[in-house]
Protein backbone atom coordinates (compact mmCIF):
# COMPACT_ATOMS: atom_id res chain seq x y z
CA UNK A 1 0.00 0.00 0.00
CA UNK A 2 2.64 2.54 1.03
CA UNK A 3 4.58 1.74 -2.14
CA UNK A 4 1.61 2.76 -4.24
CA UNK A 5 1.25 5.97 -2.32
CA UNK A 6 4.87 6.82 -2.81
CA UNK A 7 4.57 6.15 -6.51
CA UNK A 8 1.58 8.42 -6.56
CA UNK A 9 3.40 11.04 -4.59
CA UNK A 10 6.35 10.90 -6.96
CA UNK A 11 4.09 11.32 -9.96
CA UNK A 12 2.29 14.17 -8.31
CA UNK A 13 5.57 15.73 -7.29
CA UNK A 14 6.84 15.67 -10.86
CA UNK A 15 3.58 16.98 -12.17
CA UNK A 16 3.12 19.75 -9.67
CA UNK A 17 6.76 20.75 -9.80
CA UNK A 18 6.52 21.26 -13.52
CA UNK A 19 3.41 23.31 -12.89
CA UNK A 20 5.30 25.10 -10.15
CA UNK A 21 2.98 24.62 -7.20
CA UNK A 22 5.49 23.38 -4.66
CA UNK A 23 3.22 23.93 -1.70
CA UNK A 24 0.61 21.59 -3.09
CA UNK A 25 3.22 18.84 -3.24
CA UNK A 26 3.86 19.19 0.47
CA UNK A 27 0.20 19.19 1.23
CA UNK A 28 -0.53 16.15 -0.91
CA UNK A 29 2.30 14.18 0.54
CA UNK A 30 1.13 15.00 4.02
CA UNK A 31 -2.40 13.98 3.35
CA UNK A 32 -1.29 10.66 1.91
CA UNK A 33 0.71 10.00 5.00
CA UNK A 34 -2.15 10.88 7.29
CA UNK A 35 -5.23 9.68 5.50
CA UNK A 36 -4.92 5.98 4.92
CA UNK A 37 -4.39 5.15 8.51
CA UNK A 38 -5.47 7.71 11.04
CA UNK A 39 -6.07 5.17 13.73
CA UNK A 40 -8.57 5.05 16.53
CA UNK A 41 -6.05 6.12 19.14
CA UNK A 42 -5.36 9.35 17.29
CA UNK A 43 -1.90 8.53 16.01
CA UNK A 44 -1.12 8.97 12.32
CA UNK A 45 0.97 6.84 10.09
CA UNK A 46 1.35 3.86 7.83
CA UNK A 47 -0.20 0.60 8.94
CA UNK A 48 2.06 -2.43 8.58
CA UNK A 49 5.12 -0.96 6.89
CA UNK A 50 6.54 -3.66 4.59
CA UNK A 51 9.44 -5.84 5.73
CA UNK A 52 12.81 -4.90 4.19
CA UNK A 53 13.36 -6.20 0.65
CA UNK A 54 15.53 -9.27 0.15
CA UNK A 55 18.51 -9.40 -2.20
CA UNK A 56 17.81 -8.89 -5.90
CA UNK A 57 17.95 -11.86 -8.32
CA UNK A 58 20.67 -10.47 -10.54
CA UNK A 59 23.73 -9.25 -8.66
CA UNK A 60 26.29 -8.69 -11.40
CA UNK A 61 27.44 -5.40 -12.84
CA UNK A 62 25.20 -3.41 -15.18
CA UNK A 63 24.70 0.05 -16.54
CA UNK A 64 22.90 2.11 -13.89
CA UNK A 65 23.30 5.59 -15.37
CA UNK A 66 20.69 4.59 -17.91
CA UNK A 67 17.92 6.35 -19.82
CA UNK A 68 15.34 5.48 -17.20
CA UNK A 69 17.37 7.39 -14.59
CA UNK A 70 18.44 10.74 -16.01
CA UNK A 71 20.18 13.19 -13.68
CA UNK A 72 18.21 16.29 -12.74
CA UNK A 73 19.35 19.06 -10.41
CA UNK A 74 17.49 19.28 -7.10
CA UNK A 75 14.50 21.65 -7.17
CA UNK A 76 13.60 24.12 -4.42
CA UNK A 77 12.41 22.14 -1.45
CA UNK A 78 14.10 18.87 -2.46
CA UNK A 79 16.19 17.43 0.36
CA UNK A 80 19.87 16.63 -0.05
CA UNK A 81 22.31 15.99 2.78
CA UNK A 82 25.62 14.56 4.00
CA UNK A 83 25.46 11.26 2.07
CA UNK A 84 26.80 11.51 -1.46
CA UNK A 85 25.45 8.02 -2.22
CA UNK A 86 21.86 8.79 -1.30
CA UNK A 87 22.05 12.31 -2.82
CA UNK A 88 23.06 10.73 -6.12
CA UNK A 89 20.22 8.20 -5.97
CA UNK A 90 17.70 11.00 -5.43
CA UNK A 91 19.09 13.10 -8.26
CA UNK A 92 18.74 10.13 -10.65
CA UNK A 93 15.29 9.12 -9.43
CA UNK A 94 16.33 5.80 -7.86
CA UNK A 95 14.51 7.15 -4.81
CA UNK A 96 12.00 9.97 -4.92
CA UNK A 97 13.74 13.07 -6.29
CA UNK A 98 12.51 15.09 -3.33
CA UNK A 99 14.88 13.15 -1.07
CA UNK A 100 12.18 11.61 1.13
CA UNK A 101 11.65 7.85 1.00
CA UNK A 102 10.77 4.78 3.04
CA UNK A 103 13.49 2.42 4.31
CA UNK A 104 12.32 -0.25 1.83
CA UNK A 105 12.68 2.13 -1.08
CA UNK A 106 16.17 3.12 0.07
CA UNK A 107 17.28 -0.51 0.38
CA UNK A 108 15.90 -1.38 -3.06
CA UNK A 109 17.69 1.65 -4.50
CA UNK A 110 21.14 1.01 -2.96
CA UNK A 111 20.95 -2.61 -4.09
CA UNK A 112 19.83 -1.75 -7.60
CA UNK A 113 22.13 1.18 -8.29
CA UNK A 114 25.21 0.41 -6.15
CA UNK A 115 24.95 -3.36 -5.57
CA UNK A 116 25.07 -2.84 -1.80
CA UNK A 117 24.86 -6.17 -0.01
CA UNK A 118 21.35 -6.86 1.37
CA UNK A 119 21.99 -7.29 5.10
CA UNK A 120 24.42 -4.38 5.16
CA UNK A 121 21.86 -2.16 3.41
CA UNK A 122 19.27 -3.21 5.99
CA UNK A 123 21.65 -2.36 8.83
CA UNK A 124 22.56 1.12 7.58
CA UNK A 125 19.09 2.11 6.45
CA UNK A 126 17.21 0.96 9.54
CA UNK A 127 19.87 2.56 11.71
CA UNK A 128 19.25 5.89 9.99
CA UNK A 129 15.48 5.41 10.13
CA UNK A 130 15.41 4.53 13.84
CA UNK A 131 17.56 7.52 14.74
CA UNK A 132 16.38 10.17 12.28
CA UNK A 133 13.23 8.97 10.52
CA UNK A 134 9.51 9.14 11.13
CA UNK A 135 8.60 5.69 12.46
CA UNK A 136 4.86 6.36 12.22
CA UNK A 137 4.81 7.39 8.56
CA UNK A 138 7.68 5.06 7.51
CA UNK A 139 9.41 8.00 5.79
CA UNK A 140 12.92 9.39 6.16
CA UNK A 141 14.58 12.54 4.78
CA UNK A 142 18.09 12.26 3.34
CA UNK A 143 18.69 15.90 4.29
CA UNK A 144 16.96 18.25 6.69
CA UNK A 145 13.68 18.19 8.48
CA UNK A 146 10.64 18.43 6.22
CA UNK A 147 6.87 18.24 6.49
CA UNK A 148 6.97 15.62 3.76
CA UNK A 149 7.76 12.97 6.36
CA UNK A 150 4.38 13.62 7.98
CA UNK A 151 3.32 14.80 11.44
CA UNK A 152 6.03 14.68 14.08
CA UNK A 153 6.27 11.88 16.60
CA UNK A 154 6.16 13.12 20.22
CA UNK A 155 9.45 14.71 21.39
CA UNK A 156 12.23 14.00 22.08
CA UNK A 157 11.85 12.03 18.81
CA UNK A 158 12.41 14.51 15.99
CA UNK A 159 12.21 12.81 12.56
CA UNK A 160 14.88 15.34 11.58
CA UNK A 161 16.51 13.45 8.69
CA UNK A 162 20.17 12.64 7.93
CA UNK A 163 21.36 16.17 8.80
CA UNK A 164 20.66 15.84 12.52
CA UNK A 165 24.03 16.00 14.20
CA UNK A 166 25.12 13.40 16.73
CA UNK A 167 22.81 10.50 15.94
CA UNK A 168 24.17 9.23 12.61
CA UNK A 169 25.75 12.33 11.06
CA UNK A 170 28.92 13.16 12.93
CA UNK A 171 32.39 14.67 13.05
CA UNK A 172 35.43 13.94 10.90
CA UNK A 173 33.62 13.45 7.60
CA UNK A 174 35.73 13.46 4.46
CA UNK A 175 33.95 16.20 2.52
CA UNK A 176 31.54 17.59 5.11
CA UNK A 177 32.69 19.89 7.93
CA UNK A 178 32.17 19.20 11.64
CA UNK A 179 28.90 20.66 12.97
CA UNK A 180 30.96 22.94 15.23
CA UNK A 181 31.94 24.94 12.14
CA UNK A 182 28.31 25.50 11.15
CA UNK A 183 27.29 23.58 8.05
CA UNK A 184 27.49 19.87 8.80
CA UNK A 185 26.05 18.47 5.59
CA UNK A 186 26.97 20.43 2.44
CA UNK A 187 29.86 19.61 0.15
CA UNK A 188 32.94 21.50 1.39
CA UNK A 189 35.49 22.38 -1.29
CA UNK A 190 38.36 22.90 1.17
CA UNK A 191 37.91 19.40 2.51
CA UNK A 192 37.53 17.90 -0.96
CA UNK A 193 40.80 19.59 -1.97
CA UNK A 194 42.47 17.59 0.79
CA UNK A 195 41.00 14.36 -0.61
CA UNK A 196 42.48 15.28 -4.00
CA UNK A 197 45.82 16.22 -2.47
CA UNK A 198 46.15 12.90 -0.64
CA UNK A 199 44.96 10.98 -3.70
CA UNK A 200 47.81 12.61 -5.59
CA UNK A 201 50.31 11.96 -2.83
CA UNK A 202 49.43 8.34 -1.95
CA UNK A 203 47.41 7.04 -4.90
CA UNK A 204 48.98 8.46 -8.06
CA UNK A 205 45.91 10.63 -8.58
CA UNK A 206 43.37 7.99 -7.51
CA UNK A 207 41.49 7.37 -4.26
CA UNK A 208 42.33 3.79 -3.20
CA UNK A 209 42.49 2.03 0.18
CA UNK A 210 45.92 3.50 0.95
CA UNK A 211 44.53 7.00 0.43
CA UNK A 212 41.42 6.10 2.44
CA UNK A 213 43.57 5.10 5.44
CA UNK A 214 45.73 8.21 5.25
CA UNK A 215 42.78 10.57 4.79
CA UNK A 216 40.79 8.99 7.64
CA UNK A 217 43.73 9.53 9.96
CA UNK A 218 44.45 13.09 8.81
CA UNK A 219 40.85 14.21 9.11
CA UNK A 220 40.77 12.86 12.67
CA UNK A 221 43.96 14.75 13.55
CA UNK A 222 42.53 17.94 11.99
CA UNK A 223 39.35 17.64 14.06
CA UNK A 224 41.35 17.08 17.26
CA UNK A 225 43.41 20.20 16.49
CA UNK A 226 40.56 22.53 15.51
CA UNK A 227 37.21 21.38 16.94
CA UNK A 228 36.88 21.87 20.72
CA UNK A 229 33.67 19.78 20.63
CA UNK A 230 35.14 16.95 18.57
CA UNK A 231 33.36 13.66 19.28
CA UNK A 232 34.05 10.30 17.63
CA UNK A 233 32.44 7.30 19.27
CA UNK A 234 29.79 4.57 18.97
CA UNK A 235 27.68 5.00 15.78
CA UNK A 236 29.96 7.68 14.39
CA UNK A 237 33.10 5.64 15.02
CA UNK A 238 31.75 2.74 12.96
CA UNK A 239 30.12 4.78 10.18
CA UNK A 240 33.18 6.97 9.63
CA UNK A 241 35.42 3.96 8.98
CA UNK A 242 32.77 2.41 6.71
CA UNK A 243 32.26 5.60 4.75
CA UNK A 244 35.99 5.89 4.14
CA UNK A 245 35.92 2.67 2.09
CA UNK A 246 32.61 3.41 0.31
CA UNK A 247 34.19 5.46 -2.49
CA UNK A 248 36.44 2.49 -3.33
CA UNK A 249 33.64 -0.08 -3.06
CA UNK A 250 30.73 1.80 -4.61
CA UNK A 251 31.97 4.74 -6.69
CA UNK A 252 34.45 2.76 -8.82
CA UNK A 253 32.92 1.56 -12.09
CA UNK A 254 32.08 -2.17 -11.85
CA UNK A 255 33.93 -2.95 -15.08
CA UNK A 256 37.25 -1.79 -13.63
CA UNK A 257 39.49 -4.49 -12.20
CA UNK A 258 41.55 -2.08 -10.10
CA UNK A 259 39.75 -0.65 -7.09
CA UNK A 260 40.74 2.99 -7.44
CA UNK A 261 38.60 6.06 -8.02
CA UNK A 262 39.60 8.84 -10.43
CA UNK A 263 39.07 12.44 -9.30
CA UNK A 264 36.51 13.36 -11.98
CA UNK A 265 34.28 10.55 -10.77
CA UNK A 266 34.90 11.52 -7.14
CA UNK A 267 33.84 15.11 -7.87
CA UNK A 268 30.82 13.86 -9.76
CA UNK A 269 29.50 11.87 -6.77
CA UNK A 270 30.61 14.02 -3.83
CA UNK A 271 29.89 17.44 -5.29
CA UNK A 272 27.46 17.10 -8.22
CA UNK A 273 25.48 14.14 -6.79
CA UNK A 274 25.67 12.58 -10.22
CA UNK A 275 26.78 9.26 -11.74
CA UNK A 276 29.75 9.61 -14.08
CA UNK A 277 28.74 9.11 -17.74
CA UNK A 278 27.98 5.46 -18.57
CA UNK A 279 28.43 4.34 -14.93
CA UNK A 280 28.23 0.59 -14.13
CA UNK A 281 27.58 -0.57 -10.56
CA UNK A 282 29.93 -2.86 -8.59
CA UNK A 283 30.40 -6.33 -10.11
CA UNK A 284 29.59 -8.06 -6.82
CA UNK A 285 27.33 -7.28 -3.84
CA UNK A 286 29.54 -5.26 -1.53
CA UNK A 287 29.56 -3.61 1.91
CA UNK A 288 32.45 -2.29 4.02
CA UNK A 289 35.23 -4.52 2.68
CA UNK A 290 38.61 -2.85 3.27
CA UNK A 291 37.65 -1.38 6.64
CA UNK A 292 40.08 -3.50 8.65
CA UNK A 293 42.93 -2.68 6.24
CA UNK A 294 42.49 1.07 6.58
CA UNK A 295 41.98 0.78 10.34
CA UNK A 296 45.23 -1.18 10.65
CA UNK A 297 47.14 1.64 8.92
CA UNK A 298 46.47 4.08 11.80
CA UNK A 299 44.56 2.44 14.65
CA UNK A 300 42.54 5.01 16.60
CA UNK A 301 40.34 4.44 19.63
CA UNK A 302 36.93 6.10 20.10
CA UNK A 303 36.72 9.27 22.17
CA UNK A 304 36.72 13.03 21.82
CA UNK A 305 38.15 16.35 22.93
CA UNK A 306 37.22 16.98 26.56
CA UNK A 307 36.60 20.15 28.62
CA UNK A 308 35.77 22.08 25.43
CA UNK A 309 39.44 22.33 24.45
CA UNK A 310 41.22 21.54 21.21
CA UNK A 311 44.15 19.11 21.31
CA UNK A 312 42.60 17.54 24.36
CA UNK A 313 41.62 14.11 23.09
CA UNK A 314 40.62 11.43 25.59
CA UNK A 315 39.67 7.84 24.79
CA UNK A 316 36.16 6.90 25.94
CA UNK A 317 36.39 3.32 27.26
CA UNK A 318 32.57 3.11 27.43
CA UNK A 319 32.24 3.45 23.68
CA UNK A 320 31.77 0.53 21.33
CA UNK A 321 34.81 -0.27 19.22
CA UNK A 322 35.76 -2.99 16.73
CA UNK A 323 36.70 -5.37 19.55
CA UNK A 324 33.25 -5.03 21.15
CA UNK A 325 30.77 -4.47 18.30
CA UNK A 326 27.68 -5.59 20.25
CA UNK A 327 28.21 -2.55 22.48
CA UNK A 328 27.17 -0.60 19.38
CA UNK A 329 23.85 -2.45 19.28
CA UNK A 330 23.39 -1.55 22.97
CA UNK A 331 24.21 2.07 22.29
CA UNK A 332 21.74 2.24 19.39
CA UNK A 333 18.98 0.70 21.54
CA UNK A 334 19.71 3.20 24.30
CA UNK A 335 19.39 6.08 21.86
CA UNK A 336 16.10 4.67 20.54
CA UNK A 337 14.79 4.35 24.11
CA UNK A 338 15.83 7.94 24.79
CA UNK A 339 14.02 9.15 21.64
CA UNK A 340 10.91 7.07 22.34
CA UNK A 341 10.56 6.70 26.10
CA UNK A 342 6.84 5.98 25.93
CA UNK A 343 5.52 5.18 22.46
CA UNK A 344 1.83 4.36 22.11
CA UNK A 345 -0.51 2.87 19.54
CA UNK A 346 0.63 2.65 15.97
CA UNK A 347 3.94 4.33 16.76
CA UNK A 348 4.79 1.63 19.27
CA UNK A 349 3.77 -1.17 16.90
CA UNK A 350 5.86 0.26 14.06
CA UNK A 351 8.78 0.73 16.42
CA UNK A 352 8.65 -2.92 17.52
CA UNK A 353 8.51 -3.99 13.88
CA UNK A 354 11.31 -1.67 12.85
CA UNK A 355 13.62 -2.93 15.63
CA UNK A 356 12.80 -6.51 14.66
CA UNK A 357 13.49 -5.86 10.96
CA UNK A 358 16.77 -4.13 11.94
CA UNK A 359 18.13 -7.13 13.83
CA UNK A 360 19.10 -9.37 10.86
CA UNK A 361 21.28 -6.46 9.72
CA UNK A 362 22.79 -6.17 13.20
CA UNK A 363 23.56 -9.90 13.31
CA UNK A 364 25.15 -9.83 9.86
CA UNK A 365 27.22 -6.66 10.33
CA UNK A 366 28.12 -6.72 14.04
CA UNK A 367 28.01 -10.47 14.70
CA UNK A 368 25.62 -13.26 15.57
CA UNK A 369 26.24 -12.93 19.28
CA UNK A 370 24.41 -9.55 19.33
CA UNK A 371 21.23 -11.17 20.64
CA UNK A 372 17.95 -9.52 19.63
CA UNK A 373 16.43 -7.33 22.31
CA UNK A 374 12.82 -6.24 22.73
CA UNK A 375 12.76 -2.95 24.64
CA UNK A 376 9.06 -2.44 23.80
CA UNK A 377 7.91 -6.05 24.07
CA UNK A 378 7.19 -8.37 21.18
CA UNK A 379 3.87 -7.05 19.88
C1 LIG B 1 22.07 2.40 2.72
C2 LIG B 1 21.65 3.52 3.22
C3 LIG B 1 22.54 4.69 3.53
C4 LIG B 1 22.34 5.56 4.54
C5 LIG B 1 21.19 5.53 5.52
C6 LIG B 1 23.41 6.51 4.51
C7 LIG B 1 23.54 7.58 5.38
C8 LIG B 1 24.63 8.41 5.46
C9 LIG B 1 24.78 9.47 6.40
C10 LIG B 1 23.76 9.88 7.45
C11 LIG B 1 26.00 10.01 6.20
C12 LIG B 1 26.61 11.16 6.99
C13 LIG B 1 27.50 10.65 8.05
C14 LIG B 1 28.58 11.66 8.29
O1 LIG B 1 29.54 11.68 7.50
O2 LIG B 1 28.50 12.43 9.24
C15 LIG B 1 26.61 9.31 5.12
C16 LIG B 1 27.87 9.56 4.62
C17 LIG B 1 28.40 8.95 3.53
N1 LIG B 1 27.76 8.03 2.72
FE1 LIG B 1 25.96 7.21 3.02
N2 LIG B 1 24.26 6.21 3.49
C18 LIG B 1 23.76 5.11 2.86
C19 LIG B 1 24.30 4.50 1.73
C20 LIG B 1 25.41 4.93 1.07
C21 LIG B 1 25.89 4.40 -0.19
C22 LIG B 1 25.22 3.30 -1.00
C23 LIG B 1 27.02 5.08 -0.47
C24 LIG B 1 27.91 4.96 -1.67
C25 LIG B 1 27.45 4.64 -2.82
C26 LIG B 1 27.26 6.02 0.58
C27 LIG B 1 28.35 6.85 0.65
C28 LIG B 1 28.61 7.70 1.71
C29 LIG B 1 29.88 8.39 1.87
C30 LIG B 1 31.10 8.31 0.96
C31 LIG B 1 29.74 9.17 3.03
C32 LIG B 1 30.81 10.07 3.66
C33 LIG B 1 30.75 11.46 3.12
C34 LIG B 1 31.89 12.27 3.66
O3 LIG B 1 32.46 11.95 4.71
O4 LIG B 1 32.24 13.26 3.02
N3 LIG B 1 26.26 5.92 1.49
N4 LIG B 1 25.75 8.34 4.67
C1 LIG C 1 34.88 23.85 5.23
O1 LIG C 1 35.61 23.06 6.15
C2 LIG C 1 36.63 23.79 6.83
C3 LIG C 1 37.44 22.80 7.61
O2 LIG C 1 36.62 22.04 8.48
C4 LIG C 1 35.97 24.85 7.70
O3 LIG C 1 36.94 25.58 8.39
C5 LIG C 1 35.17 25.78 6.81
O4 LIG C 1 34.46 26.68 7.61
C6 LIG C 1 34.18 24.97 5.96
N1 LIG C 1 33.59 25.87 4.98
C7 LIG C 1 32.29 26.05 4.90
C8 LIG C 1 31.83 26.96 3.81
O5 LIG C 1 31.49 25.51 5.64
C1 LIG D 1 23.64 20.82 11.12
O1 LIG D 1 23.20 21.56 9.97
C2 LIG D 1 21.85 21.92 10.01
C3 LIG D 1 21.50 22.61 8.72
O2 LIG D 1 22.38 23.67 8.44
C4 LIG D 1 21.59 22.87 11.17
O3 LIG D 1 20.21 23.17 11.24
C5 LIG D 1 22.00 22.18 12.43
O4 LIG D 1 21.88 23.09 13.49
C6 LIG D 1 23.44 21.69 12.34
N1 LIG D 1 23.73 20.99 13.55
C7 LIG D 1 24.57 21.46 14.43
C8 LIG D 1 24.68 20.69 15.71
O5 LIG D 1 25.26 22.45 14.22
C1 LIG E 1 47.27 2.89 -4.02
O1 LIG E 1 47.98 3.49 -5.06
C2 LIG E 1 49.38 3.66 -4.79
C3 LIG E 1 49.99 4.40 -5.95
O2 LIG E 1 49.76 3.74 -7.13
C4 LIG E 1 50.00 2.29 -4.57
O3 LIG E 1 51.37 2.47 -4.23
C5 LIG E 1 49.29 1.57 -3.46
O4 LIG E 1 49.81 0.26 -3.29
C6 LIG E 1 47.80 1.50 -3.75
N1 LIG E 1 47.12 0.92 -2.62
C7 LIG E 1 46.36 -0.16 -2.70
C8 LIG E 1 45.76 -0.67 -1.46
O5 LIG E 1 46.15 -0.73 -3.76
TrEMBL record:
Domain Heme haloperoxidase family profile, first and last residues per copy: 67-296
EC number: 1.11.2.1
Pfam families for the chain: Peroxidase_2
InterPro entries, sorted: Chloroperoxidase, Chloroperoxidase-like_sf
Record key words, sorted: Heme, Iron, Metal-binding, Oxidoreductase, Peroxidase, Signal
Extent of the signal sequence: 1-20
Residue segments, region Disordered: 32-62
MF terms (GO), sorted A to Z: metal ion binding; peroxidase activity
Required cofactor names: heme b
Protein name (database record): Heme-thiolate peroxidase
Organism: Candolleomyces aberdarensis
Lineage of the organism: Eukaryota, Fungi, Dikarya, Basidiomycota, Agaricomycotina
